Amino acid sequence: MLLHIHPDNPPARQIKTVVECLLDGGVIVYPTDTIYGLGCDIFQQKAIEKVARLKQVDPAKAQLSFVCSDLSDLSKYTKSISTPLYRMLKHYLPGPYTFILPASKEVPRILKSRKDTIGLRVPDHEIVRTLLRELQHPILSASLPGEMVEDYCDPELIYRNFKDRVDIVIDAGPGGMTPSTIVDCTGPEPVVTRQGLGPWEEE
User: Fold this and answer.
1) DSSP state letters, 77-103
2) Top-level class of domain 2-194
């Protein structure tokens, strides 16, 4: 299904359709403040395995991430956040950043890396944040498979390529071409491991 949703004022009925799909184990393509991504409910293991097959990765070995609705939601899925770390997250989020943090026991085992870490995002995009508030827990964040990023800016082209492999492609207009900036916060100091759309200021 190709589902057109207004990016600034998503109708409740359309959001409900997507939420029901996720709760039923569906896989979606959804917009963020960076690029369109693959997503599913983080508590639906078969859906996570389907995303991993689409990406041709082993979910137990891949560093998978997920998106949260806000900082309060994010804090449930990482171990205790120090005051300096909280201030840093508050400064950069919502925004085009993925933070690698120690995973809490709330993170499904299949999504934890071998280092017991998880990538967490709070995108600055009204559709995905409305969707997360309605779902009441995060969804998986994975880039679309392949190397031609420009192919994944146009939702109609995405739909043609993935209509037989995913349940819903959300069309919120043209997407971006630059992924999020990844910041590893598991060491003594934050380290940028991928410079993406989000600018990074050295603390």
Assistant:
1) TBS---HHHHHHHHHH-SSSEEEEEEB
2) alpha beta
